[in-house]
Amino acid sequence: MTREKISKDVRLSKTGSAKMRGPVTSTRVKKNTKKKNKERIIKNPSLQPRKIVEAKPSTSLSSPGKVGYFEEIPNWKIGVIEHFCKDDADKLIKHHNNYFNEPSPGKDYVVVRVQCERIGGKDEFLDVNYYNFALVGDKRILYRSEYSGPEPQLNSTLLVGGSTEGWTTFEVFEDDRNFVVIFEDSRSWNDSHKIYISLD
Predict the structure, then answer these.
(1) How far is Cα 34 from Cα 27, in angstroms, rounded to an integer?
(2) DSSP at 153
(3) Contact assessment for residue 56 and residue 192, using Cβ atoms and an 8 Å cutoff
(4) 172, 110 Cβ separation under 8 angstroms
């Protein structure tokens, strides 16, 4: 903290003697009745120490939440209901989507059913869809959600108090493991406004 040095303005009163002319009949001592002006110190709020409150997210990549539990950030409450991998994911996509595409060679599908609730923010509509979600595993590769997946896919616009659920699908390397779902509020640049949920 920078401290401002306060220098006092000291004013010296001058005294002197008056020359008298003619006979002295009386002597008067003139008192200095002028009062010293006291300088008022006004505190500048910008210079006062401020209490810094660090935002602590409820989850992180090293300490993610669990399937079946909600996690919260300022505008959203997010939970993973269930998920399927590999052959189970293929069967689910084929059953709920007429336009099934086989995964790329050396890759598998991971499908995740999520529930989203709008719990805060201004009185305005906010979008939430599969673009808000990503996936990361032991390979530390960030997988973005694929469009082709089981229906209904997650895609809604909500006011505060609204909720929705749907599927989001990822194509991952077949030898990758221990996945964590990442939700990010697209309207926020704050890293603490992310939710991490482990699929294990």
Answers:
(1) 21
(2) B
(3) yes
(4) yes
CB 119 within 8 A of CB 160: yes
CA distance 100 to 130: 18
Q: Answer whether residue 77 shows pLDDT above 50.
A: yes
Number of C-beta neighbours around residue 93 at 10 A: 23
Whole-prediction pTM value? Answer: 0.69
For residues 181 and 153, give the distance between their C-alpha atoms in angstroms, rounded to a whole number: 16
Architecture (CATH level 2) of domain 70-198: Sandwich (2.60)
DSSP classification of residue 13: P
> Any residues with CB less than 8 A from the CB of 75 and at least 6 apart, and which?
118, 119, 120, 121, 126, 185, 187, 188, 193
Quote the CA–CA distance of 89 and 86 in Å, as a whole number.
Answer: 5
- Report the distance separating Cα 155 and Cα 114, nearest Å: 11
**111-135 tens-digit pLDDT:** 999 999 999 988 899 999 999 999 9
Token output for 9: 């303005």
Write out 53-117 in H/E/C secondary structure.
Answer: CCCCCCCCCCCCECCCCEEECCCEEEEEEEEEEHHHHHHHHHHHCCCCCCCCCCEEEEEEEEEEE
Question: What does residue 158 show for φ and ψ, rounded to 5 degrees?
Answer: -125, 145
Domain range annotation of the chain: 70-198
- Contact predicate 4/47, CB 8 Å: yes
pLDDT tens-place string over residues 10-46: 444 444 444 444 444 445 555 555 555 655 555 455 4
